[in-house]
Amino acid sequence: MTGSDWLQFVFAGLTLGSIYGIVGIGFSLIYNATGAINFAQGEFVVIGAFLTITLSHSMPLGFAIITAATGLALVGLIMEFTVLRRLRGDMLSLIIATVGISLAFRATALLVWGREPLGLRHFFGEKPIALFGASLLPQSLFILALAIVCLLGLEWFFAKTIHGKAMRAVVEDEDAARALGIHAEGYTAFAFALAGLLASLAGSAVAPIAMLSYNAGGLLGLKGFAAAILGGLRKPRAALAGGLLLGLIEALAAGVFPSGYKDAIALVVLLVVLSVRPQGLFGAREERLV
Amino acid sequence: MRIQRIQFASVRSLPAIRAAYVPLLLLAVGLVYPFVASNPYLVSTGVVFFIQALLVASLAFLMGWAGQISLGHASLYAIGAYTSAILTARAGVPFPLAFFVAGALAGLAAFVVGLPSLRLSGHYLAMATLGFAEIVVVILIEADALTGGTNGLVGIPAAAFGSYVLDNAYAYYYFAFAVFLAILYALYLLTHTRLGRAMLALHANEVAATSLGLNVAALKLGAFVISGIVAGLAGSLYTHLNRFVSPETFSLSYSIILVAMVVIGGSRSLGGAVAAAFLLTFSNEYLRAYQDFNYLIFGLLLVIIVLFFKAGLAGAYTRLRAFVSRTARGSA
């Protein structure tokens, strides 16, 4: 293979990796706020994409994307208010509840949008940009930019704004934050809204380059989680880095192994990281009791 | 005073008698069912129920007693089903051997699935099992020289013991029924002995269990292996009922449905697991047209049960029994 072929794989990897990264950031946000993993995160992405596709028939694409993202943020809020809030600290119940929600979302996607995979038109046309002998779709560039903007936005929010600082305080020590008069519940709900918003954006952005079917959420969620685990669940920055790395591994492996095994590679990475270094490449070790 | 005491004792022993009646009654129903069911198809549906009951019960054993979660139980079922299919259809291995190898291989796979549980718990373990299940599905699809890929594997022979071929629905029904009873009884014994109590201790508090000298690692892996063996045997039963296997039977959604059934049954109850499997088989059979809708209902049901009825069907049964005996006593 020539250098430009490899570069082509790198571009493909970074594009998909950005999507995994954004989904991973969603996992990270919710995990930090509640100590729970949202097993419906992948379904958020699919529903966000489908909503955008449907809305784009009746309004400009930009509005459709924003409306869908707002809708999913609301879904996240409702989920937190009605279900997850009542189950805090009960690990098994939290898993089962979010797994139940993922099943219900998948069924809803099937009932509303049907079995056929759906796609969306490219945001900025389909004319590839030539770069060092490889070509790059404008959509890929957009996805990369979106990932970076999301991350910078979150970093700015957590570092500079009063609400971001309060949220970090809640993550650090909820009781202490409460003692300081911080409304912890509000911030937990906000984390869910943010995760829904990010998932929907990722869905809208990926729909033009990958047709999504109603049950794509399972694998997307797993890979997003793999991204977050690979980098480290504790920090959005690490989750995005993990996503990019995972995308690269997947794309380069697709050049070596039969392409059908592509999906398995990310999962093998997930299992290896889970059993060797569950805190992630960039995470600090967490102590456990026994 | 004396009379009162006797009355009290008899009321107390009533549930115990009833508890013995219920399995006997169900045994009778299971034996008579093929005669009542008007056609071979319905008899085969009975076998589907046994298979699903074994799957749900084995997962309930893992979740309810050992407190370990697996979102990939269908992958062990798949390993059992494909092992049996490949051995009998491609290698000509006799059914009884294939049946046991299916259980053994699934048990071995469950050991591998269980390994992360020694270091991980809760969410991490759930995700690891989910990842494992997805890898199995990818392999089933991609290793098509062996598995037939997405088209599945055909030409699977009927179950047979030597020259006795179980090629009609009735014979196979009784074989499956016997397997179902034997395994369920084994699980019942396992959960009502020292081992079951040790697992409950592990479930309640891992640290305390360790300090009591329980071998936590062996208990966890043992629970995974036992539940895997049962799932593998169920897979073999499925293969020789259907005489065809394809990857879509063993999807992620099915694993999640199985978790749903365990929760609906009331995770620490084998009877509840069997009842939930009945509900699942019934709804798949008679609400087939609404299958997509079923998944929505099951998903929502999971959330509702976790929120409001932690003990599931088994809990509802206990409450109902308490209510009945209360009203019976009240009216007497």
How many whole angstroms does the radius of gyration of chain B measure?
A: 21 Å
The neighbouring-strand order within the major sheet of chain B is 1-2
Quick check: average pLDDT of chain A?
Answer: 85
Q: How helix-rich are the residues of chain A, as a percent range? A: over 70%
Count of individual beta strands of chain A = 2
Query: What would you call the structural class of chain B?
Result: mainly alpha
CATH top level label of chain B: Mainly Alpha
Order of helices and strands of chain A: HHHHEEHHHHHHH
Please give the CATH architecture of chain B: Orthogonal Bundle
- Sequence stretches where pLDDT stays below 50 over 5 or more residues of chain B: 1-13
Q: Per DSSP, what share of the residues of chain B sits in E-state strands of 2 or more residues?
A: under 5%
Task: Please tag this protein with its features.
heterodimer; A: 290 residues; mainly alpha; ABC transporter involved in vitamin B12 uptake, BtuC; two-stranded antiparallel sheet; 11 helices; 2 strands; 70% helix; globular; B: 332 residues; two-stranded antiparallel ribbon; 78% helix; disordered N terminus
Please tell me about this protein's structure.
The complex is a heterodimer of chains A (290) and B (332). By secondary structure, chain A is mainly alpha-helical. Chain A has helices at residues 3-34, 41-55, 61-82, 91-113, 138-160, 162-172, 174-179, 184-206, 217-231, 236-254, 262-276, and strands spanning 129-131, 134-136. Chain A has a two-stranded antiparallel sheet. The longest helix of chain A has 32 residues, at 3-34. Chain A is globular, with a radius of gyration of 19 Å. The mean pLDDT of chain A is 85. Chain B is an all-alpha fold. Chain B has one domain (42-331): ABC transporter involved in vitamin B12 uptake, BtuC (Orthogonal Bundle), CATH 1.10.3470. Chain B has helices spanning 2-36, 40-65, 73-90, 95-114, 122-142, 144-147, 169-191, 194-204, 206-211, 216-242, 252-265, 270-286, 291-308, 312-331; strands spanning 160-161, 164-165. In chain B, strands 1-2 form a two-stranded antiparallel ribbon. In chain B, helix 2 (40-65) crosses helix 12 and helix 3 (73-90) packs parallel to helix 5. The radius of gyration of chain B is 21 Å and the shape is globular. The relative contact order of chain B is 0.16. Classes of the chains: A mainly alpha (290), B mainly alpha (332).
